[in-house]
Structures are given as C-alpha cells and as structure tokens.
Amino acid sequence: MENMVEINNVFYGYKKHDQAEEFLALRGVNLKVKIGEFLVVIGHNGSGKSTLSKHINAIYLPKEGEVIVNGMNTKDISKLWDIRQSAGMVFQNPDNQIVATIVEEDVAFGPENMGVEPKEIRKRVESALKAVRMEEYSKHAPHLLSGGQKQRVAIAGILAMKPKCIILDEPTAMLDPSGRKEVIETIKKLNKEEGITIILITHFMEEAVDADRVVVMDDGKIVAEGTPREVFSKVELLKKLGLDVPQVTELAYELKKSGLNIRQDIITIDELVEELCQLR
Amino acid sequence: MSIKVNNLTFKYMVGTPFEKTALDNVSFEIKDGEFIGLIGHTGSGKSTLIQHLNGLLKPTSGEIYIDDECITAKGVDLKRIRQLVGLVFQYPEHQLFEETVFKDVSYGPKNLGLDEEEIESRVKWALSIVGIDYDKYKDVSPFDLSGGQKRRVAIAGVLAMQPKVLILDEPTAGLDPKGRDEILQNIKNLHKKSKMTIILVSHSMDDVAELADKLIVMYRGKNIIQGTPKEVFRNVETLESIGLAVPQVKYLVQSLNKKGFNLNEDIITVSEAKDAILKALRREKK
What we know:
The complex is a heterodimer of chains A (280) and B (286).
Chain A (H helix, E strand, L loop, with lengths): L2 E13 L6 E13 L3 E5 L6 H8 L7 E6 L2 E2 L6 H7 E4 L12 H11 L4 H14 L15 H13 L5 E5 L7 H18 L2 E5 L11 E6 L2 E6 L1 H5 L2 H6 L6 H11 L11 H10 L2
Parallel strand pairs in A: 3-8, 3-9, 6-7, 7-8
Antiparallel strand pairs in A: 1-2, 1-4, 4-5, 9-10
Helix pairs in contact in A: 3-4, 3-5, 4-5, 5-6
Chain B lengths: L2 E10 L7 E11 L4 E6 L5 H8 L7 E6 L2 E2 L7 H7 E4 L12 H11 L4 H14 L4 H4 L9 H13 L5 E5 L7 H18 L2 E5 L3 H7 L2 E6 L2 E6 L1 H4 L3 H6 L6 H11 L11 H16 L1
C-alpha cells in the first residue's frame, strides 16, 4: 500500500434549508494521496475543499464512491476511531479547538480519550509539544497564547494521537504574518522529519509553493493538479477561478505580457531574479 | 472627519495581578478623508485601539478628539459618536440576525427613527456600495448567502448608518482571494466617492500597500512607526522583528538591486515593480 488516502469517484450532496433540490458539493472526485506526501488543496469558498477534507476522517460519508484511509473504508463504522486516529484534522479558528485550561492537558485530551496509559500519555505530550516547539509553554493557559501558538498547540493535540496524516483546513486564515510562518514551518517539519502525510487547504498561495503537489478544486470537482510550478503557471485559469498566484508569479506573468522573454513558471523570488539577470 | 489621539493609555484589570497595559501612551492624528492602514501582530493593541475610537472602551488616561469634539470627556453623547464612527468588527457576519437582507441592513437606520423612504434609500445605497444587487437579494435570508456575501451585507448594515468614519477590523480574514478582492475594491470605491475617513485593520501587507494613504504600526501597545506605506516599508528589519513583513515585491527589488539593478527601493506593489523593471531593462538595451 503506497497511498495514505484514496478517494474514488466521490459524490456528496446536502439540502440547504428551505430548498427542495439537493446541492451537490462534490461531483465525482478522484484523488490519491501518497504516504508522506505534502499536498495543498486550493479553490474558492464553496468549491468543495472543506467538504472533501471532512470525508477523509469520516465526518462525512460519501453518497456515492468510496474513501479509503490508511487501508480502511470510511463506510466501515467499526473502523471509525482507527480512521480518526490515522487522519487528524486542524481547523481555521484555534479558539474552537482548544478544550483545556492548561496547554499540556489540552494536548493530552486526545490520547486520554483513546485510553492510552498515563505514562505513555506524558511521553507523547512532551514529544508532541517539542515537535511544534511549544515545550516551554506546557504549563501555560492557552487563551493567553498568540494565534500562531494556539494553532501549534492544536497541531500538538493531533500529534499526540500519533496520526499518519494531518488535514489542515485553512489553519493560518486568522493569523498574523509571523503566526502564519510559524504554523507553515511546523507543518513542513512534520512532513519532512516525521514523514507525516500533510493535506493543507489554504487561500494563501505562498504557502503552496513548497508542496509536492497542488490540487485545484472548482464546483465540486478537481479541475487542475500538478507540481506548484505546473499549477501556478496557469495564471489565467487560476484568475478565472477567483484564485491568486504568488506575487512574484503574477509579476512574471505581467512582465511576460509586456513582451519580456522570461519563463512563465516562476514561483520564487530567486527564480525571477535569475531570469531578469539573464536578460541584461 | 479628523481624529486626534493624545497620550492614550488603556489598562486591563487595574489593581489585580492580571493588570496589563494594552495601549501605552499612543498619540497620532488622522486627517479628514484619509485612508489609514492599521497593522501589528496579534495582541499588539489594534482592536483595543479602534474600540476607543467610537467610545466602546474608555481610556485609563488620554484623550480622543473626533473633529474638535473630545469624545473621552464626561457627559458626551456616545450614541451620536457611534453614529459618526462606524465600526465593523472581525467576522461581522456573525452579527447577522434578521430574516431578510433588507431587514438586517435597515435595522440601524430604523433604530435612528428615520422614515420609511429614507430607510429604503439608505439600504439601497449601502447595498450598492458593497456590490449586492438590491432587487435580487432584499428578500433573501442572509443565512442563505455565501461567506463573502454575508460579510458584505454585514458591512452594509454599518454603512446604512452613514458614518463619517468607517473602521474595519480585518474585513477579509477567511475569505478566498476573489471575495477578498471584491470587498477591498468596494472599500476603495467607497473612499474615492464619499471621501469617508477609513481605518483598515489588516494582516495583509500587500493589501495595505495597495490601498492606504498612511500606515500606523502597533507593537506591544505602542504605535512605533507611522507614515506613508513607502516610508513604513523601508523598515524591513524592524517590521520583521515585530512579527510583520513587507510585500513580497519589496524583497524582490532588494535582491535585484544586490545583483546590480538600480531600482527604486520604495517599490511596494506589483504594478510599480513591473514598470520599474521594464524601464530598467529598456534603458540598458539603448
């Protein structure tokens, strides 16, 4: 088995209140996420990103098709807790995810509910807080932390359950620039050093630049996918879908439109500098 | 309307072990019709500051003048001040509560005791500013709208009070790029047309670089830097050390200049960078 997640032709719909017709949020999604992959999902609000992510830990079950997580079908109710332990979720608002009044107790909440031995819990909490660089704050009250710190505590809470995969649904939407950086660096580190599969949903295109693969969703379907370079070179498609590209990619696109002979798949500052230096 | 803040200090829970100085001797002036970007890391005092500007919080010491009226003095009619200074909170869509878009936006003007005709014209005006089609949406439940639309309806509710100063606390947080651009474009047009004084609290350096006439930078309760965006973004190292950043193109310009390009260091937007790079390359060709 080399896939962490397999999503096979999934359809999902729900009724919006006082409307007779069912709204189809997912219309035949196929996606395979490899073990250890760093996948970014982008798409405008309402494109189906969050609905898709909630299928991966069985919060939603597909109307049609199937979702296999770590070899387990999400329709198999007897596997529900194993699935949720394999694939943990982090949401947008850190304040909605923190349950305890002390950081280390919050991180221990997951493993405690799983019935893990107290000794083992202590070990897991310590190493989870270390992994997100919050060990100094283990005795602090979460509400006094900054947004970025709270979000890292939320990630530690997931880590303490030893997941194989973490799904993050716009984890930086409410954070300031440094908080955003802290969280993204933490995610990248967990992916590289711990080999945890990452599925990151975001509206900040700069966060997608280092991913292994980017998937673009629109109207409940996957409309483009590829390396960040392949996806961001489709500036016009992304704009048409109401999405952004990183500022340097946009600048490179504008320069090319004005007649400069430069590559269209530029996604970092260094690449644009190099290209422009060659034109002199 | 102009705003003048003199030596504003605000302490939480004075006299307890939890006493904290949220605003520390803040002074600044905003001219009538200016567009101000207020930036600073989470917890730097931005939200506390703006809640003082319409009298929701009372300073521990210091004064605030709106035009020439001291709103921190005793006996001030705060109801009137709050009409003049409209405040749009973070996630304003959480405050939607009525059955229809019309009812929600008209709630404020109705409470002002205005007549039906005036209320209708204000609702029409406010919805047109935020780009929501009046005839199509007036009878729709606000809860059936998309996230971006909900937020724009909530902003319209504040606009319908016809404030002279509009303060928006992170109006684009959590929106997708299209929703974000729509709201920012609405605010930009509003400022152009009405010459309203606008204060935009934001975590996006790119957005304030595009929109604001002046920036105020908060750090640990103090306003440590202010000036035009170009002036403020010259302080790259200071801004980074206090948890902020500068627009990505600014880093690009710095790298290019290290390689011998001679671009203006004050470039902060994509279109400025584009023009400068094209000009520099053409000059060299000649």
